[in-house]
Amino acid sequence: MKVHFPRLVLPYGLVQFVSLFLMVVLLAKPLCAQQPTATPAKPAPQPQSVAPTLNPTFETLLSVDSYKLYGEVRNVGQLMSNGGLGEIVDPIIKLAEPPKEFNSIIKFLKANAEALASSRLLFATWPERTGIPDAFVAIEFPTTEDAAKFAPKLETFLPGILPPVPVATPEEKPPAQTTPTEGAQQAATRDKKEEAGAPAVSPPVERPAFVLSHAGNLVFISDKAFKFEKLRPASSKSLAEDQNFRVAYDRFSNESVFLYFNVQLEDRTKPKPSPTPLITDAEREQIQREMEAQMLKQQEEARIAFEAENNRRANESTGAEPRFVARVSVQPTLQASPAPTPTKEQETQRAASSQIGRMLDAIGFGEPQWPEAVGVALALENNDYVIRAILIEPPEAKHLPLPFVPQLISAPALVSDAPSVLPDNTEVFVSASIDFRQTYEGMRKQADIRAKTEMRQIRAVAKEPPPDPFAEFEKKAGFKISEDLIPALGSEIALAGSLKLLEGMGPFNIQSRPSAKPSPEAEAKEGQEKKESEVLPMLLIAVKDREAVRRVMPHVLQGLGMGEANLIAQIEKREDVEIVNYAGFFAYAFVGNFLIISQTASVRRAADAYLNHQTLASNTVFRNSRRWEPRQNLGEIYFSPAMMEGYHDAVRKQAGTMDPTMRDFLLGLDPTASAITYALSNEGLGTQHEIHLPKNLIITMVAGISSATKNPPPEANEMIAISMLQMISNAEGPYQSTAGKGKYGTLDNLVEQKLLSRDILEKYGYRIEVTASGDQFEAVATPREYGKTGKRSFFVDKTGVVRGDDHGGGPATVADKPIQ
Predict the structure, then answer these.
(1) Which of 238, 571, 635, 721 has its CA 20 to 30 A from that of 390?
(2) Tens of pLDDT along 425-440?
(3) What is the Cα–Cα distance from 621 to 163, expressed in whole angstroms?
(4) For residue 566, what is the DSSP state?
(5) In terms of C-beta density within 10 A (0-12 exposed, 13-18 middle, 19 or more buried), how is residue 339 classed?
């Protein structure tokens, strides 16, 4: 079993992101990203007492359309507790090299944990109105006295993580008209100042990156001064009065972190696409006539060229002078090796896959149905990190489990019955309640609309409309989907399988072991079938009328162009379970109230598990992990503890070669393996999503990423080296046009002008060198330890094209191939 902890292409970016998040959550990190303004320099900010109203609250200070994003962190002082964010921060500090700002924030939080114990941090960003701060943060204390005591601490702390920002000063403009004499005098004056050692450029003017103030029990931090009447004009409704906000806020009133995104504001800011112009029938006929005329012209030209070529060859063979010469450009044809001829079975499979794909494409046709607002919350419950979200939709909205799949319609909530027919060692299980009739009708309608639109816009000769995949299927199958198939189906659909099906698809490339060892009897029965590789998941569809579905299934194969498979079908009876096996390639069976379709071995295992009462529903781990879910839901997902077991096994097996600090940290974690669970529901307020992630799994992931930031693999160093050369190339242009006075700069020149950071350039296992002369420069990156910190060397010049190859540690040159 192998486990590969994630390696980042730009590891430093992750640490910056985590640091940025904490600053936003606690101390308004976005403030340090402000654009320079023409505001003159100011002394260090002094906390100002502002009292627009008596005991104001943050939600009432903002209008509903002031900001698109609003957030809260409750009980800030407890963030660094053992059961809170501190457990995620711990591996970052121990295994990575976080920036000093990150460490400063953690230290400040711990030092002031008692003062912040019952405080709330509130923030709003992504402004929709003009004249208000880009980042607006407040810390709410229990009393006004507590706020007044804490403001001086922030005044001392914030400048350390939010350094002053430069102020853009108006550029000096020359007079509208200057005589040659005046111009010469001005140039002479400038030359004298430079000879005297006077600075050619005035020192940069800076201003504080934040404004600190307080009102009542609130301490405000913003990127610029503000007026309360701008945050909420007198005629506007406060955020606290907005119905959508109240729904989300009340739903997540107890979680530690709460975010609210006003999607309606975002929709209003997006430009609406202009409707595609449609052509009339007369215009289409005209286009067809023009195309036919063009085709006739091309055929005539080809005929003339063919006759000319024959004439030339005839003259060459007889030695006569050519009577007519035509230049014919003949492109050489490459003789590729012939592809193996597909078998009849392969062609049938491809045709069936294409047919299914064209039908399923229609599920995504139409406009996505975005919600009016989204609320998200994060909490720690027992040993799980819990993420909850609610999508608040308009009353007339369709019930969609996913807003970007507009034709997938939910049926009423149900108690999932699929676990009662799945094997007890199933590792991945996904279930949903789907209204097949509404989904099918929506797909047909949207497919018809798209077909008609394509016909109106078509600009080629087309005598027949594009084929309708549904009509084509029904014609071959000889039955109507809406009349003969859908009435016989229930509303539950599920997919199930093992984690092996996901190998190579995730960032960790886990090869897991089964979550529960099967009994000796079950293991003996599996026999040779267990050796067969699992390549397909099990598809389960609830059935209301088994006989009706039984009659239709052979016709389904005919509709997919696989009717001949019915000739080799074999029926296996196992008590009341009937398996239809197609020569061991695939099979379907009626097990309990479900139709199961998969490869033959998987279907047989499901049938045996059902008959032996060794199903997923009887699995204790599965049952316990779902206790938090509502009894009825619209969908759910289950990942067995096998994922965590895979991590623990890998740590034990790789302990001898793993970084000691990383090994000791991972071995100190709780070895208990837990499942990942997710549920989808709707209680009338909006679609609600909830996922439970094991705490030790999240900490393990953070540890792996943190370790990668400190000791990145050679491949990551190579990608960083390429990025560094691109940074140097991008910095040379501004230097040439400013301080360089038309000349490119060396590495020291670029660092001196603060266009680059030397610390970053020397951090990731590559030696960077820059040579510059006049209007030419070359930069090379070579590995400090060939084979360990990197293999390839890289080169860039003023063209901006990064080139490179493996030179055994030697420098790359302009002769190397460009890096794709």
Answers:
(1) 238
(2) 999 999 999 999 999 9
(3) 51
(4) G
(5) exposed
Apex 424 CA angle, 421 and 426, nearest 5? 90
Q: 3-class DSSP state for residue 332?
A: coil
Tokens of 706: 């943190």
In one letter, which amino acid is 53? T
Which residue pairs, CB below 8 angstroms and at least 24 apart, start in 182-187? none
Q: How many angstroms separate the most distant Cα atoms in the chain?
A: 112
Helix (H, G, I), strand (E, B) or coil at 688: strand
pLDDT tens, position by position, 411-465? 999 999 999 999 999 999 999 999 999 999 999 888 888 877 776 665 554 556 6
The ranges of the chain with pLDDT < 70 are 1-56, 81-84, 168-204, 267-348, 455-466, 502-534, 651, 655-657, 708-711
Q: Could you tell me if 55 and 48 are in contact, meaning their C-beta atoms sit under 8 angstroms apart?
A: no
CB 358 within 8 A of CB 470: no
For residue 481, the tally of other CB atoms under 10 A from its CB is 19
Q: Which residues, 6 or more positions from 672, have their beta carbon under 8 angstroms from its beta carbon?
A: 383, 644, 696
- Taking the alpha carbons at both ends of the chain, their separation in whole angstroms is 33
DSSP 464: S
* Euclidean distance between CA atoms 293 and 285, whole angstroms: 12
Distance (Å, rounded) from C-alpha 723 to C-alpha 8?
13
* Segment (H or E) for 261: strand 257-261
Is there a contact between 617 and 384 (Cβ–Cβ < 8 Å)?
A: no
| Token pair 């046009």: residue | 737
Give residue for tokens 């997006």.
270
User: Closest by alpha carbon to 773, among 737, 795, 743?
Assistant: 743
Nearest to 161 by CA among 11, 15, 30, 48: 30
